[in-house]
# Entry
Amino acid sequence: MKRLHHALVLAGLMLTQPAQALTIEFDYTYDTKGFFTDLLTGAPIIERRAILTQAASFYSGFTDSLSAITPQTGDQWSVQITHPSLGGGAITLNNLDIAADTLRIYVGGSNSAPGVLGFADSGYNLIASGSEAFTDAVATRGQENAIGASATDYGVWGGMIWFNANNSWHFGSDAAGLMPGTPDFLTTATHEIGHILGFGSADSWWAQTDNGYFTGTNSVTAYGDAIPLDRFGAHWATGTMSTVEGVPQATMMDPSTPAGNRELPTLLDYAAFADIGWQVTATAVPEPETYALLMAGLMLVARASRRKQVA
Ligand SMILES: [Zn+2]
# Structure
């Protein structure tokens, strides 16, 4: 039965992938507190993992060519990240192999103070040495002018996301059943991936901020003016509005989404990713028809697992 569910999800997702697509791999190695994994049986919690895949699909239309990170003899790379389940502080990852056009995100979750939803980061390099091609792939994935105060592009290996298990998450692929007091897991996952893609973190992001405003060309065009930021400069200001297919919606990359709401990427959010340097195409937003198929596949998974819980 589980194989069948996987097949349905994959069939839906393949339809949304353009020829050249950004692939996001989720790694559950450090899911040591059972947020995505049944710790008793070791079985994946498919319903939750499927939502991460759905979140990644909102970026699958980014068509940048990211060079592979392939350590050869003489190359050395160690990156330190926060443990995705907050188990024992930081962890060091050595000589990771990351395929072209692919990011790897280590995920986990654990209980923390209520109110916090999650956080993401890409860690920092303890060592990155070897051939120029290798160190360039580690630092920028082959993107031009991606480092420094006047950077215009961005490349990254991936990162980590921690989710706060101490929330009554809505794990649905659609918004049905999303109720006041239940934060939407899809919204938070998509938001956190946005930070790994450089929103509020890339040099090219900071290069386009000015005194509490973001001045990237695509974003200013989408918004009509420079866009106010939160006090850390890492999000749009709270309540910043844009649209999804012409319908007004609060931006996904403002600091928080009220529990009970679903806020997926708006026109302004995608414009910012273009300003950070991503090749954002029209296909960044799945076509309505293929999106409906994707949803249908995921809903079957969700229904099947609900039945299972009842039984
Ligand atoms: Zn955030």
About this structure: The radius of gyration is 19 Å. Helices lie at 2-16, 46-57, 132-140, 185-196, 203-206, 217-223, 267-276, 288-310. The first strand starts at residue 23 and ends at 27.
